[in-house]
């Protein structure tokens, strides 16, 4: 087995021989040391990869903000136009005759963004990226077109998303909000045209030209709205404003957290090895994909959340090491596959609280060590634990980024234990010796620093604590107060260990008054409630607050054990920035 890994690793990383590659060896040496490994290039460590361009992250978030806002504006304008069109007019009579002209006009309109307008100046991607505030003006691109949409902003609710905005391509938004891609909208957009982009598609261009044989040459295509926190390995979350739109997160918008290049697995050659190492007996069995798919199919709704979700908020208190995740390193899906408890029981595995189940992935680091993690056997054997060897996500075969052909789904447990591209399961008396089990994904006191930390003293994170996040409005958004004096706030809440969300409380006055949100959740018994809850609240805004114009919304969730989120990050700060579950606080602006 190890030999097979090694051979694959050499191929994957383009190595001829493990022993003669000194630099990669050193890489691993630092890697197992823990904290320092964040400096690696394609390191196998935690969430510390550097972005390929520091601008990119900021721009990505900003661009999404503008794009999102822009589509809401288009929606409003379109509705207005439709209302006008509904009024009886003599033009209706001529409408049939005009139809052909409209077609022609539309054909032309659909070419504009692909056509260079010679009378206008040409801009580079960098030029566009710089136009990300009202002061510098807000630019977006569509195809070859560069558009200045700043004038859309003033006095339009949502327009002030500009403040967190940067220039970016709007193309991916058309793909999702296709109903907006109409003649009127295209015409409207073209009136904002200020120039031509020097290179089409450049802003979302992910092809940095990997040579064949590079470990990154076979990375899957990703949805343009998944904005990378790091590109190699690929780590990305969807726009926060879209996260609470759907109870089941669309597969292509589900956050991706990879530590290594994505392995390419041929389903016909796929093998899953199960090793049971007990003191008195050892057994070994290999399954192919068919074997797993023939077993009784079990489906569970489970949210998967990265241990570093919302790290970007914790790091504001004091820097932490790790990828700067927003609140989008979580998604909710229906997972189907064989139950691990069935597989283990068929192998004669008996309950034993001292044992662990180790999962290994097919993604290998340069020294042929696979990504790995473990969970207690008690979780794996518990039929109410709902651990599955999943081959489907929301009724679709798993995509490569999410673990094709099989991944472990460990409901209620931190993302890191949900091992993708599963190739080996070991039942044994110790936890996984992998970096990610031993020297990462553990919590510490706020006073523990990199000089004093001892990873061996802390428990590996398993069940996650209760958390919630506000998805809309987004930070700095301008929100319109409705006639009844309320605003609508939406978000998600989740707790680990199968604990159902009991309540989500919202305040707009720093806790003087609290308002209970309405929950959308599955009707499942507590202890086995693994999906997230979406929530909606109508939050009353006082006359005084409306005068102030600025305000901060806080959200906190309570789970079925009456665990509640801590108020502030100060007291839960930890050097890896994990378990970042303080109240979610979002500053917005009010408009009448
Ligand atoms: N084989 C393998 N499994 C893995 C990882 C990985 O890098 N390799 N990342 C883990 C982490 S840290 C998280 S948060 C989840 C992310 O799952 P997703 O990419 O499907 O959202 O996968 C986990 N399983
Ligand atoms: Mo993670």
TrEMBL record:
<dbReference type="GO" id="GO:0030151">
    <property type="term" value="F:molybdenum ion binding"/>
</dbReference>
<feature type="region of interest" description="Disordered">
    <location>
        <begin position="81"/>
        <end position="105"/>
    </location>
</feature>
<dbReference type="GO" id="GO:0008482">
    <property type="term" value="F:sulfite oxidase activity"/>
</dbReference>
<dbReference type="GO" id="GO:0020037">
    <property type="term" value="F:heme binding"/>
</dbReference>
<keyword id="KW-0500">Molybdenum</keyword>
<feature type="domain" description="Cytochrome b5 heme-binding">
    <location>
        <begin position="120"/>
        <end position="198"/>
    </location>
</feature>
<dbReference type="InterPro" id="IPR036374">
    <property type="entry name" value="OxRdtase_Mopterin-bd_sf"/>
</dbReference>
<dbReference type="InterPro" id="IPR001199">
    <property type="entry name" value="Cyt_B5-like_heme/steroid-bd"/>
</dbReference>
<dbReference type="InterPro" id="IPR014756">
    <property type="entry name" value="Ig_E-set"/>
</dbReference>
<dbReference type="GO" id="GO:0006790">
    <property type="term" value="P:sulfur compound metabolic process"/>
</dbReference>
<comment type="pathway">
    <text>Energy metabolism; sulfur metabolism.</text>
</comment>
<protein>
    <recommendedName>
        <fullName>sulfite oxidase</fullName>
        <ecNumber>1.8.3.1</ecNumber>
    </recommendedName>
</protein>
<dbReference type="Pfam" id="PF00174">
    <property type="entry name" value="Oxidored_molyb"/>
</dbReference>
<dbReference type="GO" id="GO:0005758">
    <property type="term" value="C:mitochondrial intermembrane space"/>
</dbReference>
<comment type="pathway">
    <text>Sulfur metabolism.</text>
</comment>
<dbReference type="InterPro" id="IPR036400">
    <property type="entry name" value="Cyt_B5-like_heme/steroid_sf"/>
</dbReference>
<dbReference type="InterPro" id="IPR005066">
    <property type="entry name" value="MoCF_OxRdtse_dimer"/>
</dbReference>
<keyword id="KW-0479">Metal-binding</keyword>
<dbReference type="InterPro" id="IPR000572">
    <property type="entry name" value="OxRdtase_Mopterin-bd_dom"/>
</dbReference>
<feature type="region of interest" description="Disordered">
    <location>
        <begin position="29"/>
        <end position="53"/>
    </location>
</feature>
<dbReference type="Pfam" id="PF00173">
    <property type="entry name" value="Cyt-b5"/>
</dbReference>
<feature type="compositionally biased region" description="Polar residues">
    <location>
        <begin position="41"/>
        <end position="53"/>
    </location>
</feature>
<dbReference type="GO" id="GO:0043546">
    <property type="term" value="F:molybdopterin cofactor binding"/>
</dbReference>
<dbReference type="InterPro" id="IPR008335">
    <property type="entry name" value="Mopterin_OxRdtase_euk"/>
</dbReference>
<keyword id="KW-0496">Mitochondrion</keyword>
<keyword id="KW-0408">Iron</keyword>
<dbReference type="Pfam" id="PF03404">
    <property type="entry name" value="Mo-co_dimer"/>
</dbReference>
<keyword id="KW-0560">Oxidoreductase</keyword>
<keyword id="KW-0349">Heme</keyword>
């Amino acid at each position: 087995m190890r030999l097979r890994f090694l051979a694959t690793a050499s191929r994957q990383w383009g190595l001829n021989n493990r022993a003669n590659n000194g630099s990669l060896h050193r890489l691993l040496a630092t890697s197992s040391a823990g904290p320092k490994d964040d400096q690696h290039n394609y390191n196998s460590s935690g969430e510390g990869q550097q972005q390929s361009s520091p601008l990119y992250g900021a721009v990505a978030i900003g661009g999404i903000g503008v794009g999102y806002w822009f589509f809401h504006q288009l929606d409003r304008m379109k509705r207005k136009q439709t209302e006008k069109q509904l009024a009886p007019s003599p033009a209706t009579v001529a409408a049939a005759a005009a139809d052909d002209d409209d077609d022609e006009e539309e054909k032309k309109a659909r070419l504009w963004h692909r056509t260079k307008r010679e009378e206008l100046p040409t801009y580079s991607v960098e030029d566009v990226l710089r136009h990300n505030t009202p002061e510098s003006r807000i630019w977006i691109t569509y195809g070859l077109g560069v558009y200045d949409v700043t004038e859309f902003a003033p006095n339009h609710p949502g327009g002030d998303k500009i403040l967190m905005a940067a220039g970016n391509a709007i193309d991916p938004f058309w793909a999702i909000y296709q109903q907006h891609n109409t003649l009127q909208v295209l015409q409207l957009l073209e009136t904002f045209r200020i120039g031509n982009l020097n290179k089409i598609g450049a802003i979302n261009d992910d092809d940095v030209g990997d040579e064949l044989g590079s470990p990154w040459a076979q990375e899957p295509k990703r949805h343009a709205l998944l904005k990378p926190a790091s590109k190699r390995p690929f780590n990305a979350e969807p726009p926060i404003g879209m996260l609470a739109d759907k109870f089941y997160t669309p597969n292509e918008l589900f956050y991706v957290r990879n530590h290594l290049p994505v392995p390419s697995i041929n389903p016909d050659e796929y093998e899953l090895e199960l090793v049971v190492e007990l003191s008195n007996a050892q057994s070994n069995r290999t399954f192919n994909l068919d074997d797993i798919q023939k077993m009784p199919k079990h489906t569970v709704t489970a949210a998967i959340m990265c241990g570093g979700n919302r790290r970007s908020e914790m790091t504001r208190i004091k820097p932490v090491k790790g990828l700067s995740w927003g609140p989008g390193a979580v998604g909710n899906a229906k997972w189907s596959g064989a139950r691990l408890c069935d597989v283990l029981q068929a192998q004669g595995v008996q309950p034993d609280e001292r044992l662990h189940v180790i999962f290994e992935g097919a993604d290998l680091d340069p020294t042929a060590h696979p990504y790995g993690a473990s969970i207690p056997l008690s979780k794996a054997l518990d039929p109410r634990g709902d651990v599955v060897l999943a081959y489907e996500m929301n009724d679709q075969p798993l995509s490569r980024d999410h673990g094709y052909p099989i991944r472990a789904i460990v409901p209620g447990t931190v993302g890191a234990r949900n091992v993708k591209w599963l190739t080996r399961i070991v039942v044994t008396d110790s936890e996984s010796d992998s970096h990610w089990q031993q020297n990462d994904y553990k919590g510490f006191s706020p006073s523990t620093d990199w000089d004093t930390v001892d990873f061996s003293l802390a428990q590996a994170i398993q069940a996650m604590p209760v958390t919630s996040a506000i998805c809309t409005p987004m930070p700095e958004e301008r929100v319109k107060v409705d006639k009844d004096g309320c605003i609508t706030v939406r978000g998600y809440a989740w707790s680990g260990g199968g604990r159902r969300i009991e309540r989500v409380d919202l305040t707009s006055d720093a806790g003087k008054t609290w308002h209970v949100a309405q929950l959308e959740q599955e009707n499942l018994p507590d202890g086995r409630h693994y999906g997230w809850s979406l929530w909606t609240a109508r939050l009353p805004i006082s006359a005084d607050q409306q005068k102030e114009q600025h305000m901060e919304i806080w959200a906190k969730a309570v789970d079925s054990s009456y665990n509640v989120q801590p108020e502030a990050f100060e007291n839960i700060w930890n050097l890896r920035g994990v378990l970042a579950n303080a109240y979610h606080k979002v500053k917005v602006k009010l408009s009448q």
